[in-house]
Amino acid sequence: MKPLMREIFTRALLVAGVPTAVRALLWRDRVAILLYHDPTPATLEAHLEYLKDKVEFVPLSEANSRGNGRPRAAITFDDGHVGNADLLPIFVKYGVRPTIYICSSVVAQQRTHWFLDPVAKHADVKRLIRMKNDERLAELAARGFRQDQLNESAIVSGLSAAQIETMRPYVDFQSHTRYHPTLTRCDDDECFEELAGSRIEVERLVGKPCEHFAYPYGIYGPREIAMLKVAGYKTARTTDVGWNDQSSDPFRLKAFDIEDDSSVSWFAAQLTGFTLAPRYLRLGRVRRFCERFRGRSRSLNQTSQAQRPQ
Ligand SMILES: [Zn+2]
């Protein structure tokens, strides 16, 4: 969305009281999983300050648990960016226990997340994401980037082993694959290796069970869900918009993909879910978007009817 359009849209939502209405009518006692990548401490602090009196912060493991009458929020981060280490004082200040889904073969290494490497940026990351996995790796290798090579001169984009060790008492580290491929563009062996191998690596790194997973780019299918179950995971987080409760499919947990540099008002607007409408429209998923909201209002109607005096 263009900045001016966004500003008009955000102000209209806020003036109309949409965030408050959404918390009361849709969020209710469910869990919103917030998805960040690499926000600054100042941005995250502003967001948590806005939320702290409105919702209860819970760990991701409670995402599909029974409600307690209050809106709840679980804070998650994808990829394991080195900048996440600077957020630790904010987690402690707000009593938030976040989940950081790490690329387990990239963090704690002299490596760069492939999509952040200048080679990939030059070759058009969006095009590479859509390619078959072996063809993408072959093209990157031909251009001079190998994901499994340790490189003394690499731009280290992931958390270091020492940073993970420091954060371990306050953060749940879970899996976001080994190297961040597009899973649906991997063959069966590549896909299973990324899922099962990552689980082993995360457990080795942090010395705690790895049971939760986040799909790279939010892209997944039935095969990925089946393999996650075989590999021993208990939940998987998508980037599909929505709230979670005890009836949610644990391998299709919904989330709110928050832009890392969001102002507080844009953050509040994103938490309504309405800002994601253009993305659905672009992807031709109008029917799915409408069904989601119809589904919610239908269950709301059923609830309000049940609560009416007979
Ligand atoms: Zn990611």
Automatic annotation (TrEMBL):
Keywords, sorted A to Z: Plasmid, Signal
Top-rank taxon: Bacteria
InterPro entries the UniProt entry points to: Glyco_hydro/deAcase_b/a-brl, NODB_dom, Polysacch_Deacetylase
CDD domains hit by this protein: CE4_NodB_like_5s_6s (cd10918)
Coiled-coil regions listed: none
Biological process annotations from GO: carbohydrate metabolic process
PROSITE patterns: NODB (PS51677)
All copies of domain NodB homology, residue ranges: 71-310
Record carries keyword Cell wall biogenesis/degradation: no
Pfam family, one: Polysacc_deac_1
Transmembrane region(s): none
GO MF annotations, alphabetized: hydrolase activity, acting on carbon-nitrogen (but not peptide) bonds
PANTHER family: POLY-BETA-1,6-N-ACETYL-D-GLUCOSAMINE N-DEACETYLASE, PTHR34216
UniProt protein name: Polysaccharide deacetylase family protein
